[in-house]
Amino acid sequence: QSALTQPPSVSGSPGQSVTISCTGTSSDVGSYDRVSWYQQPPGTAPKLMIYEVSNRPSGVPDRFSGSKSGNTASLTISGLQAEDEGDYYCSSYTTSSTVIFGGGTKLTVL
Amino acid sequence: QVQLVQSGAEVKKPGSSVKVSCKASVGTFNTYAINWVRQAPGQGLEWMGVIIPIINTAIYAQKFQGRITITADESTSTAYMELSSLRSEDTAVYYCARGNGAVADFFDYWGQGTLVTVSS
Fold first, then answer.
1. B106, A3: Cβ pair inside 8 Å?
2. Which residue among B35, B101, B110 sits closest to A52, beta carbon to beta carbon?
3. Eight-class DSSP state of B14
4. Are A105 and A6 in contact, with CB atoms under 8 Å apart?
5. How many other C-beta atoms lie within 10 A of the C-beta of residue B67?
6. CB contact under 8 A, A48 and B108
7. Which of chain A's ends, N or C, has fewer CB atoms near its CB within 10 Å?
8. Model confidence over B26-37: pLDDT tens digits?
9. Do the beta carbons of residue A34 and residue A102 sit within 8 Å?
10. Model confidence pLDDT, tens digit, residues A40-80
11. Residues of B numbered 63-102 whose beta carbons fall under 8 angstroms of chain A's beta carbons: which are they?
């Protein structure tokens, strides 16, 4: 099973909004509302930012939001801040009862 | 406080096996699933498999079928991931992560990671 498709990189200036897409298939993203997003600063373990498409864990700023349409999920970060820089990964539950990750997107705050 | 503490770095020869442990804090082990995710140098995250300790059931990614075994020891709240027939491409940081949600599909707590280096 191939990884979910994410853009390799996105960038934005402080205060702007950016959106990262995550495209899968009808066997994963399209089948369930079970898409998650993770932030990974360099050299650290990933941190959960969004689960079940649009839910934020406690402590995650409401600048982070998630959505889904068909086989594509999206993470939007509004009011971009320097601390938001890092790699972002989406993941999805699949019809094989497994989990699949996206290839990752590097966010640069200009 | 939820904690997942992993074993230390390993250096292995090609063709050998490695076993990484992940000790979970009280309350985590008998309620949640434990997943294993790896990350090769400069690469993305790759899900390897999961174990649900309370029912002692493991599910593996197709890519690792036949080479991976995930087990759980309830008496010590420790999960193990063993990968055999190691090759250089298995050099990576291996993470355990707590699976949450109805199907344990999102990972809210992560171990610190264990670097496994495969080299002759």
1. no
2. B101
3. T
4. yes
5. 16
6. yes
7. C
8. 788 788 999 999
9. no
10. 998 899 999 999 999 999 999 999 999 999 999 999 999 99
11. 95, 97, 100-101
